Amino acid sequence: MASLARIRSVVGRSVSRVGCGLTQFGRREASTRATSSGKEFSHYEVRVRADKGGCETLSETMMCFGAQSVTLSDLHRGTEREEEIFSGNEKWNQGEKWKDTLVVGYFAEREACTTCIASCEEVLGEMLEYKVEEVFVETHDWENVVLESYQPIQISDALWIVPTTVEPPEKDAVSLMLSPGIAFGNGGHPTTKLCLRWLQSSIRGGEEVCDYGAGTGILAIGALKFGAKAAVATDIEETAVRITEVNARQNGIREGDLESLLVSSTITGRIPGGVESFDTIVANILMGPLLELKECFLESLKSGGKLGMSGILATQADEVARAYSDELEDVKIETLDEWAIVTGTKK
């Protein structure tokens, strides 16, 4: 099979022809056909068998001559001859490929398929065994499909996270409203559940709370709904700060009760904002930052204040607990699935 250097040399001489073809392909309207659920749009696939020594060369050559994308897979996938080579395993990391590889190129037009194969055969100096197939893909209203997939998530007996597109399932329960499709998840992660359950059980009323690494702000909003007097929500991402503000309004949080702040990832000293020291700090982040922010958290927490730390695996909880054991009392670890929360009270 030809070297990549030779391929690039030939492609360089052919670039104007290929470039024009790609522009034409981009303007093409795909074939459609009606179905019971809407429409199907078509594209064309060229399937070529290659050995492991030539599959990547063939793939790059097809991309040079008009393929919109190319995939490689085991020709014998799903059979007894399938080889255990996949992304992330040792053989893959060492550059191994399947002995018999299926190279699939994707095109907008059938003519582009045959033109590409002819060019590849000329450059590679061999005849290719290939098959061209028109493939129809059903279209969906993906926005509504995604929205319909969001359902209320029960956190505890009287606490739900509810998408704004549906009605709260229990009128008398506390409902935390989140817009579907926002960044930072839907609030259903085990660490979010652990933090909310801890806040619900520990807030007595009138506290000043910090949600450090707030994301959606769901923990700060939850604390206020549980009876906290004020909350500060911090994050290192500007998007999170804006999302927290939106979610606060959607949950009926009074202006001034929640302060959403953009902070540095290397914060030192006290947590910024209008609260000098907090009754409660909750941080659902990662183990590294939890350990790095130890002095910041302790300096910002009142004596007798409560600290809840999550975003960690159950296997990491002991290390976090040990790091804070000299400054906290009544240290506890709770787990959910493979995740954990470490809580304690400042001495």
UniProtKB/TrEMBL annotation:
Transmembrane segments: none
GO BP terms: methylation
Pfam families documented for this protein: PrmA
Keywords for the protein's UniProt record, in alphabetical order: Cytoplasm, Methyltransferase, Ribonucleoprotein, Ribosomal protein, S-adenosyl-L-methionine, Transferase
Superkingdom of source: Eukaryota
PANTHER family the UniProt entry points to: ELECTRON TRANSFER FLAVOPROTEIN BETA SUBUNIT LYSINE METHYLTRANSFERASE (PTHR43648)
Name of the protein in its database record: ETFB lysine methyltransferase
Species: Chloropicon primus
